């Protein structure tokens, strides 16, 4: 299911756009939401509704424009795909300052909207498949990370500390949620630890050493699974 958020301070126009989305051939895969302000968008994200697709008005009646919002929150590499819209054609020039997918000129024609959504869905599906991406919820926003860049993850109460070679990312998710996104890459070695098989340098039976120098404990109940996973990976 893909979350679609329509951000437009013209609430009625946003609701009309939402009704058009319900006619899309893949509407059952789309969960659409309307936000009439950036504050309303914040509330949606606080509820865990992270936009995969953001249909964003360029000219907002707030201090920040849609362009500023896209640059700040959804830069290149973000999971969120941005579709800009405006009743002003000159706004399209500003849109090209950002990493967006499509520009829709108001009044929005259904065929153009469908074309934009189709292009976004294709981008989302191709990027996930090609790069073996994992999705993390970080500071109430979705972040994409290539599975190969994760060295290991450790559970810390309701958070997951995801270790890469360059940083530690605190994400709100469970170990099993991360493992399910790339089961061929990760193995659970302990109830609190998940390691990336590609980064293992040695295994003693009681612990695993990773290529960043960290040593992770292996619980007795997981020893057999870890041994099999390493054998399968190396084979």
Short description:
This protein is an alpha/beta fold and 235 residues long. The protein has helices spanning 11-21, 38-46, 66-73, 91-95, 110-131, 175-181, 223-234; strands at residues 2-7, 30-35, 53-57, 81-86, 102-105, 133-138, 141-146, 150-156, 159-164, 168-171, 186-190, 193-196, 200-203, 207-210, 215-217.
Structure summary, number of beta strands: 15
CATH uppermost class of the largest domain: Alpha Beta
Q: Mind telling me the CATH superfamily name of the largest domain?
A: Response regulator
* Sheet with most strands: strand arrangement: 2-1-3-4-5
Largest sheet: 5 strands, parallel
Question: Which second-level CATH architecture of the largest domain applies?
Answer: 3-Layer(aba) Sandwich
**CATH topology title of the largest domain:** Rossmann fold
* Helix-strand topology string: EHEHEHEHEHEEEEEHEEEEEH
Beta-strand percentage range:
25-35%
What is the terminal-to-terminal distance? 35 Å
Low-confidence blocks of residues: none
How would you describe this protein?
The chain has seven helices and 15 strands. It has 235 residues and is α/β, with parallel strands linked by helices. It folds into two domains: 2-131, Response regulator (Rossmann fold, 3-Layer(aba) Sandwich); 134-234, LytTr DNA-binding domain (OB fold (Dihydrolipoamide Acetyltransferase, E2P), Beta Barrel). It has a five-stranded parallel beta sheet. It has a five-stranded antiparallel beta sheet with strand order 10-9-8-12-11. The radius of gyration is 21 Å and the shape is elongated. The mean pLDDT is 88.
């Amino acid at each position: 299911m893909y979350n679609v958020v329509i951000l437009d301070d013209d609430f009625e126009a946003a609701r009309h756009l939402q009704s058009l989305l319900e006619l899309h051939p893949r509407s059952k895969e789309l969960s659409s939401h309307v936000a009439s302000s950036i504050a309303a968008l914040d509330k949606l994200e606080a509820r865990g509704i992270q936009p995969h697709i953001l249909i964003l008005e360029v000219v907002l009646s707030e201090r920040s424009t849609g362009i500023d919002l896209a640059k700040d929150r959804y830069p290149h590499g973000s999971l969120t795909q941005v579709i800009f819209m405006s009743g002003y054609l000159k706004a399209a020039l500003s849109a090209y300052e950002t990493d967006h997918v499509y520009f829709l000129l108001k009044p929005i024609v259904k065929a153009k909207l469908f074309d934009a959504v189709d292009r976004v869905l294709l981008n989302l599906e191709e990027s996930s498949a090609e790069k073996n991406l994992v999705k993390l919820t970080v500071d109430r926003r979705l972040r994409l990370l290539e599975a190969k860049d994760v060295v290991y993850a450790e559970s810390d109460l309701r958070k997951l500390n995801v270790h890469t070679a360059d940083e530690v990312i605190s994400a709100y998710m469970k170990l099993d949620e991360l493992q399910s996104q790339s089961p061929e890459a990760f193995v659970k070695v302990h109830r609190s630890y998940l390691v990336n098989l590609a980064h293992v340098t040695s295994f003693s039976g009681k612990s695993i050493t990773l290529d960043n120098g960290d040593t992770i404990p292996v619980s007795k109940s997981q020893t057999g699974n870890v041994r099999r996973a390493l054998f399968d990976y190396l084979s």
